[in-house]
Design brief:
Blueprint (H helix, E strand, L loop, with lengths): L1 H22 E5 L4 E5 L16 E3 L27 E10 L7 E6 L2 E2 L3 E4 L2 E5 L7 E4 L8 E10 L12 E2 L3 E6 L3 E15 L2 E11 L1
């Protein structure tokens, strides 16, 4: 009796994934980032010269390579994670995406990130451990390069362990139709589970 039940469960879980594949595209933004630690007042502007910055791949941690601080806090690894840093990347967004909603999904940035696109502040996030997303639709230049700049600042952050520094998890660009299932908007619960019966409930948040 368990096999048919499991098959139905798997089928129901696959349906949202199939729906997602029909209405959204997901592009990873791992390569081609420029990074510099420290204060750069105009680094959010597209015209800013980052030619002498370090080329990095995301995920990236600006402190993990050291150098060690001999008299530093052992709880945080004696690593130089305190400070601020900038990441910049040019992203081509095709004209065919005009009319869609585009989101930047960030799995983890330490800490207090500010997201700029083409010189405009598109969004920000307090703290550094949670994933978050930003709607960048209104700031896009379609059919050309878009300058994505991210500022991370750990100076006001405190920790009892090594927290990391910078864009320490992946970033994705998500394009969806105007009417779409919200990011993280599908919920599956099983309020009743019995040996030969289960109540499975699926709820979805639709954005327009």
């Amino acid at each position: 009796m368990k096999t048919p039940f499991l098959s139905v469960c798997l089928l129901m879980m696959m349906l949202p994934a199939f729906s997602y594949s029909q209405e959204r595209t997901v592009t990873g933004l791992s390569e081609g980032w420029k990074f510099s630690k420290g204060h750069h007042e105009l680094a959010y502007q597209a015209e800013f010269d980052d030619s002498d910055w370090q080329t990095v791949r995301i995920p990236h941690d600006w402190a993990i390579a050291g150098p060690f601080i001999t008299d530093g806090n052992g709880d945080t690894g004696k690593l130089p994670w305190k400070g601020e840093g900038w990441y910049r990347k040019r992203v081509m967004i095709p004209k065919k995406d005009r009319g869609k909603r585009l989101y930047l999904l960030c799995d983890g940035i330490m800490a207090f990130p500010q997201i700029y696109l083409n010189g405009k502040l598109a969004g920000r996030w307090d703290y550094g451990y949670n994933s978050f997303y930003v709607d960048i639709t209104d700031f896009i230049h379609y059919g050309e390069d878009n300058l994505l700049a991210i500022h991370a600042d750990t100076r006001q952050h405190d920790s009892r362990w090594y927290p990391g520094a910078g864009i320490y998890r992946k970033i994705q660009l998500i394009a969806v139709n105007p009417i779409h299932v919200d990011i993280w908007g599908t919920y599956i619960t099983t309020p009743i589970i019995k040996p030969h019966y289960a109540d499975i409930r699926i709820a979805a948040t639709i954005k327009n």
